[in-house]
Design brief:
By secondary structure, the chain is of the alpha/beta class. It folds into two domains: 167 residues, Ribosomal Protein S5, domain 2 (2-Layer Sandwich); 205 residues, Rossmann fold, CATH 3.40.50. The chain is 37% helix and 17% strand. It is built from 22 helices and 18 strands. A hairpin with a 2-residue loop joins strand 15 and strand 16. The termini are far apart. The model has no long low-confidence stretch (mean pLDDT 90).
């Protein structure tokens, strides 16, 4: 007979599953057994929990203790079940009353002396618990601000197991309530006013920000490719509340949140080194896959500097995520889905020797082709904007006219995004880059004279069918920036130019 039951939650990607933690005492030789597909970390919980209970001034039962985690066919992993296991045992042993824990979800790792330590994924776990009908949550105090992001749930924080025991036995102020968490801003972003010259690249960056398009910048070193990429997040509008919670949940699962300001309100910027593994980029791990850089860059920017130094298999692994906006990872414990709707920004030199002036290149044609071939055709076909950068001239540096600041360009970007969001509001898309090709042509097709240019390019084999869709999206973004009701042939010609093609002659 089950003598005690409390609630916790299990992670599955950025989603969760409610878990019932049941405890039964008696019926066999003294010992502690955990059932319900626990992993190694969870199996070790019996020793941690026993020591934490003893060091909190309570006696561990000297009978057989059976702990069950349901649903029994779901793999359970991690140390976040320590607190509910301890409470369930103390309830079953008659040391804690059951009513205070009705409708309460418990999360937290226990130290041997009874201290509570934070765990990953608190936000998605509590969202799951709220959907399952829980009305209260008890979490470690360091995770209190993250937990308070969940509306409709009373959140309490504990420093030690003894705090939870005191609260349950009649001391209401033994647990801590959360203070309002300040949003995480990360400081002011770098400003575009620092970038000298490069008008074409600046315009491409503005178009990328306005439409959510992917961007490739190529050119000699020192021309400002990295500077421009780092200024893209400053052009993007702040995340809406639902987007911020979505991004924060991913960062919580990855263990990348700040305790003082956990809510991510600005688009993230990730710049992995070219030695990063496939798992570091797309996600991976044993048992259940963890999110990689592309998911942590969700709703933000993934910047691959020196893109041609990345091994080809790393770049090819991004193809599905670039097209579908999510990544599916299959591991032993099942398939998890992580959102991955990011803006990809690639920066590369044009050859391995990379001289300041391209005329000084000493590479053979074969070496240049091998170097640039790491950016394969299928990858480049998914990049909407390509810009070639040149070394700044002395005249550009001598120009005393200050370049446009980030705030000025951001205003145009926000207005263009508002037009796109209004156009796609009935379908749930926020930017032109998110719109699937069939839906784009069905609901807002290009005017006939504008579409003729793309049809001609497709007929002559200059672009693929995917390229037609991507040019149409860029044309809509250019129209939004120009406040035009629909893309004109000039907008389509500019979109083709961004992909490295010129508008064909009739």
């Amino acid at each position: 007979m089950v003598l005690a039951k409390v609630f916790s939650a299990a992670l599955h990607g950025v989603d969760g599953c409610p878990v019932e933690v049941e405890a039964d005492i008696g019926g066999g030789k003294p010992g502690t057994h955990i059932v319900g597909l626990p992993d190694a970390a969870l199996n070790e919980a019996r020793d941690r929990v026993r020591a934490a209970v003893r060091n909190s001034g309570l006696r561990w039962p000297d009978q057989l203790v059976t702990l069950s985690l349901s649903p029994a066919d779901l793999h359970k992993s991690g140390s976040g079940y320590d607190l509910p296991l301890a409470v369930a045992v103390l309830q079953a042993d008659g040391k804690l009353p059951a009513p205070p824990f009705d409708g309460t979800v418990l999360l937290g790792e226990l130290a041997l002396d009874g201290r509570l330590r934070p765990v990953r994924g608190v936000l998605p776990l509590l969202l799951t618990a709220r959907r399952g009908g829980c009305t209260r949550a008890i979490v470690p105090t360091p995770a209190l601000r993250e937990a308070s992001l969940v509306d409709g749930l009373e959140v309490l924080g504990a420093d030690r197991l003894t705090d939870v025991i005191a609260w349950a036995t009649g001391t209401p102020d033994a647990l801590v309530r959360p203070d309002p968490a300040p949003p995480h801003t990360g400081g002011p972003p770098p400003d575009l006013v620092d970038v000298v010259g490069q008008p074409d690249a600046r315009w491409a960056l503005e178009v990328a920000a306005a439409g959510g398009h992917h961007l490739l910048m190529s050119g000699p070193p020192g021309t400002g490719k990295t500077m421009l990429a780092k200024r893209l997040p400053g052009l993007l509008p702040p995340l809406a509340r639902d987007q911020a919670l979505e991004v924060t949940a991913i960062h919580s699962v990855a263990g990348a949140l700040l305790a003082d300001s956990p809510l991510v309100t600005v688009p993230p910027f990730l710049a992995p080194h070219h030695s990063a593994s496939v798992a570091a980029l797309v996600g991976g791990g044993v048992g259940q896959a963890k999110p990689g850089a592309i998911s942590r860059a969700h709703r933000g920017v993934l910047f691959l500097d020196e893109a041609c130094e990345f091994p080809a298999n790393r770049l090819e692994a991004l193809r599905t995520a670039l097209e579908e906006g999510e990544i599916r990872l299959a591991r032993r414990d099942g398939v998890v889905r992580y959102p991955a709707r990011f803006q990809l920004v690639l920066a590369t030199n044009t050859c391995p020797c990379a001289p300041p002036q391209e005329a000084d290149c000493t590479c053979t044609p074969q070496a240049r082709r091998r170097y640039l071939a790491r950016l394969s055709g299928p990858v480049l076909d998914r990049v909407d904007l390509r810009v070639r950068m040149r070394a700044s001239s002395a005249a550009a540096r001598a120009d005393t006219t200050p370049p446009e600041a980030t705030a000025v360009v951001r205003e145009r970007v926000v207005q263009a995004r508002d037009r796109a969001e209004h156009r796609w509001a009935g379908h749930g898309w926020h930017t032109n880059a998110e719109v699937p090709g069939p839906e784009l042509h069905r609901h807002h097709p290009l005017p006939r004279e504008s579409m003729e240019l793309l049809d001609t390019c497709l007929t002559r084999g200059l672009i693929s069918a995917r390229g037609v869709d991507r040019c149409a999206r860029v044309a809509w973004t250019l129209a939004d920036l120009a406040r035009a009701p629909a893309p004109t042939p000039d907008h389509v010609a500019s979109a083709l130019h961004f992909r490295g093609h010129h508008a064909p002659l009739p």
